[in-house]
Each structure stands twice: as C-alpha cells, then as structure tokens.
Amino acid sequence: MKTRSDMCESMTCCHKLYSNVVSRKLMFLHKILSLDVHSTTRNIFVKRFILYTSDKTVMLGFIPDICKIICIYGLQKFINNVLICPTSLPSQLEWKRRVKDLVLTNEQYSWSDRIINDVDFHMFRTLQLSITPAVVSKIFDKTCTNA
Q1: What angle do CA 24, 3, 15 make, to 5 degrees?
Q2: What pLDDT, in 10s, does the model give residues 37-58?
C-alpha cells in the first residue's frame, strides 16, 4: 500500500518494511543454498524450487515468495548457476553486501520514479532531491546520541 507518508521515510533514515523482509528472505536463501549438497533441507528446497519454476505448480509460502524476489532483483541466472555449481555461492558477507546493494538500489529507483511521476510531489521534489537523510534528521540523530 502506498501512502503519502512513505515518501518521507528517506528523510528519517527509515526503509520500507518490505525491504527488510526481502533482505531477510534473501539471507535465508543463502543459508539454505550454503548447506551441504546432500542435505535434506537443501534438496527439498531445490526440488520444490525447480517444480515451481518449471510448471508454476500452485504453492504458498517461501518458494513463490523467493521466486518473485529473485525475478524482481534479477537474480535468476545467478541462482541457476549456484544450483548447477554449488561452489559458486559467494560467502555470507559478500552475499549480504550484494543483497544490501540490490535492495537499496531498488528502493532508490522506486522512490525516484514515484517522486518524478506523481504530481502531488512537485513541492516535495524541491526540498528532497534524493533518498538521503534530511538535515533535520541528522540534527536529531546528533542530539539523541549526545544526550
């Protein structure tokens, strides 16, 4: 759901709840894919993932969610490579960095697209040109840390 208040999140250094959920799901995906190739959990995931992606079997839960996220963030080829060659999976730190960059880039693109295309934000554009913390937020942070 989009509201007017969601556009001000950037001014207070907040990110959308959805972005945090996506990050956590992608980190969980890394945890599953980093399991041993003979692990039951990993094999069940791979089997259900392939089943879902090959013929769009009706499923609920993590598999359809992660497939949607993989498509949104353009990770299809990467995930396919990891499924074929498990040793190509990056370390947890590298994956976390990559996820953070992907989510932040997507969030910035969505914010910019909305602020440019929605006429209600004409005045807001003059005050907040990018998705960065506002001066008021920076001052408030300094005040809170010094108290």
Answers
A1: 30
A2: 899 999 998 888 888 888 766 7
